[in-house]
Amino acid sequence: MIIKNILGLLFCTALFCMGFVLNGNFSLYFNLSGLLIVLGGTLAATLLSFRWEQISIAARVTMSSYNRQQKTEKEIIQTLIDLSVKSRAEGILSLQKEEEDETSILFLRRALGCLVDGYRVDQIQEILSTEMYFFRLRRDDLERVLKSIADYFPTFGIIGSVVGLITMLSGIGDTAVILKAVPIALTSTLYGLIFSNFFFLPFAANLRERTNHELLLQKIISEGIIAIDSEINPIVLKTKLDSYLTPSERTGDRHPPASIRERFNLEEESPTESGRLEFNLENIR
């Protein structure tokens, strides 16, 4: 999916730039004065509006949203089903190693930590709900930063245009002054619109889409962890969590003993223990 997005972005960007080149020289659209007015004014307004730490976090999260691959709902559900099977076969404390391994999803690691530490169901639910609530608040703040910057750019583009018009009017009768002022007036508005609509509004939209996806994953994890603590049958849990998937993504896969041993690196049991494991797994199903 990311490769398709990148290819589409490159193709559409090429079309966008081609529109500038077809009817003139690309260098005509570059004006240093207009660029400095727009960038300098927007940066100053941003620094007056938000703390530097908040701006830095927004930049890092935006970059991470494009660089870091997210797990899918199906992968999370598969992980939770595996954890449920292992919990019923070996006990809750056997998930402690999984807590250390699941470092790619901090929310899942935190949920497993609460489960292994023996928190009550209501305590786990309250902790995870609070985590989700403040995660959303933090992301909403970062999205607000990006949208504010996107609003500042066109405004300072208009300011640059006004500066160009004032310069042009002050040079009436002097062709050289007018020719220098016109590009400032026109390119400033262009820069403001491009930075706003080509960069920061898409950044904010991407952050919103990623936040919604992560909240969905956190909701799935919360449901799964509470079900594991309540020792719900894994097949019932799978049916419940499959509701988060589209019909085309749902599968009816089961978890045979061989796949469980391979998933959790379980050693081969003696015939007596193997029979007990087979019996336990049948009961789980």
Describe it for me?
This protein has 285 residues and is mainly α. It has one domain. The chain has eleven helices and no strands. It has helices spanning 2-22, 32-49, 52-67, 73-90, 96-101, 106-116, 121-170, 175-229, 234-241, 257-264, 271-284. It is elongated. The two termini are 35 Å apart. The model is unreliable at 268-279 (pLDDT under 50).
Give me some keywords for this one:
285 residues, mainly alpha, 11 helices, 79% helix, 0% strand, elongated
* Principal-axes shape call: elongated
Task: Report helical residue fraction.
Answer: over 70%
Oligomer: single chain
List how many beta strands DSSP finds. 0
Q: What's the main sheet like? A: none
Q: What is the average of the pLDDT values?
A: 83
Total of domains: 1
As a whole number of angstroms, the C-alpha radius of gyration is 28 Å
User: What are the secondary-structure elements, in order, as H or E?
Assistant: HHHHHHHHHHH
How many helix segments? Answer: 11
* Class from secondary-structure proportions: mainly alpha
Our measurement of the CA-to-CA distance between the termini, rounded to an integer number of angstroms, reads 35 Å
The percent range for strand residues is under 5%
The low-pLDDT segments are 268-279
Strand and helix map with partners:
Blueprint: H1 2-22, H2 32-49, H3 52-67, H4 73-90, H5 96-101, H6 106-116, H7 121-170, H8 175-229, H9 234-241, H10 257-264, H11 271-284
Helix pairs in contact: 2-7, 2-8, 3-7, 4-8, 4-9, 6-8, 7-8
